[in-house]
Amino acid sequence: xxxxxxxxxxxLLLHDFAFSGTRQLSSKPPSAPSPLKQELSQISLADFDADxxxxxxxxxxxxxxxxxxxxxxxEVIKNTHNSRIKDTxxxxxxxxxxxxxxxxxxxxxxxxxxxxxxxxxxRNQISVGMSREEFWQKFNxxxxxxxxxxxxxxxxxxxxxxxxxxxxxxxxxxxNMMGTADYTFAFVKDKLSQVNIDVYMD
Length: 202
Known about the structure:
Layout: H1 2-26, H2 35-39, H3 45-50, H4 59-66, E1 71-78, E2 86-94, E3 97-104, E4 107-115, H5 132-137, E5 150-154, E6 163-168, E7 171-176, E8 181-188, E9 191-199
Antiparallel strand pairs: 1-2, 2-3, 3-4, 4-9, 5-6, 6-7, 7-8, 8-9
C-alpha cells in the first residue's frame, strides 16, 4: 500500500515541477527586435541614392533577383573614352518593366530603369503597389515634406547630400544636386504605380 502512495506523490511533484517551469518560461519578457530590423525602418535619401537596389548590382545578381520571366538582350558598344574597348549594355525587360545595365571593364551599374512590376523591391522594401503614406515613412528626411507641393531644396552637409524634391499630387521626383541621378515615383490612387531611375554616365 505504501508503494502506490509514494509513486502517486512523486508523480504529483514531477507534474508541479514541470508546470512551474512552463510558467517561468512564459512569464519572460518578449525579446527585443533585432538591430537589423530597426535599422531598416527608415533610411536617408543619400543612402537610397548611393544604393537604390540594396545590393551590388551585376548582371548575375539581377538575373537571379528578377527570375526567368525577364528577357535579356546584349548590346555591344564602344567605350566612350577608348574606342578600342568594347562595353556591353544588358537590356532586361518584362512587359512594361525595363532595366538597363552598363557593363564596362570591372564595373556594372543600372543606369536606366522603368519599374512597374511589384516583384522588384528597391532598397528598404520600396516597391510598386505600396501606399503613398508607406512610401513617405521609408525615409527619415523626406516624411516632413509630405504635405507640401512644388519644388523643394533639401540642403545637406555638402552637394553629395543635397537634393531637389519635386512634389505633385501624383508624382514625387528626387534629383541629387550633382546632377548624376533622378528618381521618379508615380502614384495612381495613392498607390505607387511606377518607378523611373535615370543615372548620368560619363
